[in-house]
Design goal:
2 domains, about 45% helix, Nucleotidyltransferase, domain 5, binds 5'-O-[(R)-(carboxyoxy)(hydroxy)phosphoryl]adenosine, alpha/beta, binds zinc ion, single chain, globular
Length: about 350
């Protein structure tokens, strides 16, 4: 059995071919970073137009890389949302056309849930219940999974996503796009204790996140200290900011862990590539006596292998008659369903 998965929710055009046992035969990702870099963030219209130009080549490359003919694909899967609607519609229409012509089932996949499933590509037996933290440019959410495919949302960001906050500060300092990797690099020699950041506090028992306060505090420090790209204090400032973002994420994770008593913790999304976050996440998990699972970096940022992984799990459940997985009337959705 072979499955072709397509992902176009933001600014990566991606396609992957997976075998029925979840072996990834190809995982092609074409980034649009160069196109959006001059603007310091993703320009939605440019993203959709680049997807429509690239999607055919990316799908072709993923099939060729896997050595599998289109006729031998048994299932198609595509990201349905959340994301930029124009971008989602490109992948969705392309996948729908393929599924329709080849008379094969098409499975609509949730992008954030796919980020969670990415960890299962490298670790088949992650013990449930799982506490999953997904941190990317568009999303910062905590989920509790009592069992496979049961995604209970515990908290989400009320304003900016963590990656978005990193990208915006990098943009303000003219450091380049995407901001996360640049900040990580420049912050490496810095002292994270030099600049103080107060962490956000939610008034209720909420497990929601907020990053707009940290972003505003960062902008205030930049102005007060007249920090610029070439300032020798920049590594210290960036290390302090990066570390504050990581602490805000892990504080919430710890509160959720004490309340929900998971067997393991899982990290995913583009910001999960961040070295400080990976190290501190593992340390925090050890403190709680929990097993920590973080996908390798290329499976953290947007890709189609994670979409395929979730689709295969759903097919498996469908076989057991638990879930209806196949639709041709799929629509795109911009935001995470509540
Ligand atoms: O998951 P992703 O590819 O796209 C979304 O679903 O949003 O995540 C992209 C985000 C960007 O905000 C980028 O700055 C951030 O991931 N990112 C990082 C690193 N690599 C990518 N943030 C911090 N450190 C990194 N090494
Ligand atoms: Zn993503």
């Amino acid at each position: 059995m072979h499955l072709l998965a397509i992902e176009t929710s933001c600014d990566e055009t991606a396609a992957a071919v997976l075998r029925g046992d979840a072996a990834v035969l190809s995982n092609v990702v074409l980034s649009q970073d160069e196109i959006h870099a001059p603007y310091g963030g993703v320009v939605p219209e440019l993203a959709s137009r680049q997807h429509i130009k690239s999607i055919g080549f990316v799908v072709h490359d993923s099939l060729a890389g896997a050595g599998v003919a289109l006729e031998d694909i048994d299932h198609f899967a595509v990201t349905q949302g959340p994301g930029l609607v124009g971008s989602l519609l490109v992948g969705l229409s392309f996948a729908k056309g393929l599924a329709y012509y080849h008379k094969k089932p098409l499975i609509g996949i949730d992008h954030v849930q796919a980020h969670i499933q990415a960890a299962f590509l490298e670790h088949k037996d992650i013990p449930f219940p799982i506490l999953a933290l997904i941190v990317s440019g568009g999303h910062t959410s905590l989920f509790f999974l009592k069992k496979s495919l049961s995604f209970e949302l515990l908290g989400r960001t009320r304003d900016d996503a963590a990656g978005e906050a990193l990208d915006k500060i990098a943009k303000f300092l003219e450091l380049g796009y995407p901001g996360g990797p640049v900040i990580q690099k420049l912050a490496e020699p810095g002292d994270p204790g030099r600049f103080e950041f107060a962490l956000p506090r939610m008034s209720d028992r909420s497990l929601d996140f907020s990053f707009s306060g940290l972003k505003t505090a960062a902008l205030r420090i930049i102005r007060e200290h007249r920090l610029s790209k070439s300032d020798p204090r920049l590594p210290d400032f960036l290390a302090s900011f990066e570390s504050a973002v990581v602490r805000a994420l892990l504080d919430n994770l710890s509160r959720a862990a004490s309340r929900h008593d998971p067997a393991s913790v899982l990290l995913g999304g583009g910001v999960a590539r961040n070295r400080r976050l990976r190290t501190d996440f593992e340390r925090q998990a050890r403190r709680f006596g929990l097993a920590a699972y973080i996908p390798s970096p290329k499976l953290c940022t947007d890709n189609a292998a994670m979409v395929g992984a979730l689709a295969l799990t759903r097919i498996e459940h469908e076989k057991k008659g638990r879930e209806k997985a196949f639709f041709l009337d799929l629509d795109a959705y911009p935001r995470m369903p509540v």
